[in-house]
Amino acid sequence: MVHNSFIKCQVCGSVTRVRLQVGHLCQHPIVITCGKCQTSLSGTAYIGQEIPSLEYEFDNADLLNGMPNADFIVECSGEFPVKKQHKEDADNIIDISPFIRNISRIEGNSSWEEFNEAIARLNTTASKWKSYKKILNLFERKSDFLAQEIKKEFQGSFFTCGSESEILRSVHNIEAIGFYTPLKSNLLDVRKFGHEVLKLNPVQMKALNIFLNSHDGYHLEEIQSQIYKIMDEFINVFPSLIPAISLQYIGEDSFDFENEGSTTSTFDTVKQFYLDTYETLGNLMIIPVALNNIKYRGDIDLSAMVDSKVFTLEEYIKLPKANRYHFCLNNEIYTNFLGAKAKVNVKLRNAIGHDDIKYDPISQLITYFPNPKDRAKGKTEYLLEFESEVVHMFQGILVISEYLYRLRELEMMHNGDISMIMGMSKIINVYDLCPCGSGQKFKFCHWKKQRK
Ligand SMILES: [Zn+2]
Ligand SMILES: [Zn+2]
User: Residue 244 in contact with residue 394, Cβ under 8 Å?
Assistant: First the structure.
């Protein structure tokens, strides 16, 4: 259903027709700017889902009765991209609804049920986030109350807490149901993918854990906390990013960013999340880079040739973030799987850094100046493109979280957790190297010790 309402700007008196696509969310932001005087008229739509109702709240504008003549029209949706604000004229009267427009594009590309399910799951994650976050924080603090609190919230075989490794898995499963399922479901489809990480050369994997745990800011626990912090920020900002998420179902490559945009956000809504996600992903990139080094070159200190040089991990972490992203290679699996390569705009990040940005709320165009000394060379990007980038970067962080989980499992084996080590006999051969990282064959190391 599409509902029309008319609002009058309290500053210049212009009338805007708000054409709202009533969707499945109980409430969502509406970001509108007056087409004449550029005053923000943003507000919120409240939609009764159980008992049908619809209410609005707007800043700096009054709701009008009846069907007055409007100067501007703006389409709004909490879920989809919409046509950007334009002048009201006769052509607008018979336009199809944003729902119809987008559902046909989604069906041509993936499925409406899948998109709907993903958003519903993210809403569930958001509604349970206080409780999830409490558990994640207890885990970070290694609290004695952790198992008790997990049992309060979760039941079943995925959430057993009988040992240290089971607790690690239970906590990790919160991320899996809260974030992977709606945003990176192929992480769950390819369970073998995690096993591939566990099967990488154990001596090198142990060296990687030792490297990380001996460098400030890279300890496995510190990396874990950085991921939780970004998840927390995502939950706060995600209602504004739903149209950007929908692009992955609609198809981004053929999308008309010039004429369609978002009415749930503005540049300022997502700027900080973008900066923090960029920094965090740049920091965490060391893990997929090191995994590639081990898989393809058998040595954590042998990177691929990047910028005509080969880097050790020590050299790698001395690089600025922008250069670290050069290692996000598509032809090596652990970075390719992040899916973030083409989506990291280093120049835009730097321009935000020196606040060299202009944002036009009507066209939703971001103009940025990569080189502050040459302001003639401005570049542009639309808000929805910017938001799509940050969603892709966040999904890259989710992938690294899966790698981190495997590193933490391995850490337990390096510390001699017998049941974890013996559990590996399901996925490795007795003549492979022992997962404990001793460098001996499994058969002559822990496998033999266990048989005695
Ligand atoms: Zn106005
Ligand atoms: Zn061993």
Answer: no
